[in-house]
């Protein structure tokens, strides 16, 4: 596919950020395509510092559940630290909720376009995660994305916008989101479900990992083609990896996918999701 990729590292599934993170970063550097390593939903100061120590390309500071001023204060503090060592920062304004409660909570926590510019300016973030009607996990109702809100946010800020909760949102919705300025999309649940579905197919038990990996890979390839990533990697990256991705965001030549680093011991949990 020759596609650049952002690999998400979630603390709740991998609490040893420093040790495992260093291994992941080392492997990313040996890849033949550009791979950035990102801390996803960093909920504390400590998690962010651990990710920086491990060599992550970027961190997401998630203070979206905190009061607005607390969100700004905590995010700005970590932006100063991260930028001092060449690490980029994403943060969330509004709150992307859980798909299991989507029918009830869909209208709650949406990003206020009127606050977007102030939030970006006061925090100094590099990427803004927006809440426009998507949700994490599997949807309990039909997804409704507020593209008018997304366009209004784009008129306020010129930094890359990120869409969490891409799984299950529908190809047409995701493509329209890209047309309205989204440059990164998080995909997780769809990949998990595809991997588990492949893993539970008939075959030798000792080959289950290979079946899971193949199912995950094929679903990911479909998203890469949909978002126009295929063939965008070119040759080896000579510039620093962060500069490469920043230039790619600014060019808006394709939409990048962020995928999770996920442990195999979650397979049993994922089986229930796929049913």
Secondary-structure element series: EHEHEHEHHEHEHEHHHEH
Q: What's the Cα radius of gyration?
A: 18 Å
Quickly count the domains: 1
Strand content: 5-15%
| Apparent shape | globular
- The CATH class designation is Alpha Beta
Distance, first to last CA: 30 Å
| Strand order, largest beta sheet | 1-2-3-4-5-6-7-8
Portion of residues within helices: 40-55%
Going by helix content, strand content and strand pairing, the class is alpha/beta
Q: What's the total helix number?
A: 11
Low-confidence stretches: 263-275
Sheet with most strands: 8 strands, parallel, barrel
User: Per CATH, which architecture?
Assistant: Alpha-Beta Barrel
Q: Give me the count of strands.
A: 8
Q: What's the CATH superfamily, by name?
A: Aldolase class I
CATH topology description: TIM Barrel
Question: Mean pLDDT, rounded to whole units?
Answer: 86
Structure overview:
By secondary structure, this protein is α/β, with parallel strands linked by helices. The protein has one domain (5-274): TIM Barrel. It is 45% helix and 15% strand. It has 11 helices and 8 strands. It has helices at residues 17-30, 45-54, 68-84, 102-105, 113-123, 147-156, 171-179, 189-199, 208-227, 241-251, 267-274, and strands at 5-10, 35-42, 58-61, 88-93, 127-130, 161-163, 182-186, 256-260. Strands 1-2-3-4-5-6-7-8 form an 8-stranded parallel barrel, surrounded by 7 helices. Helix 8 (189-199) packs antiparallel against helix 9 (208-227) and helix 8 packs across helix 11. The protein is globular.
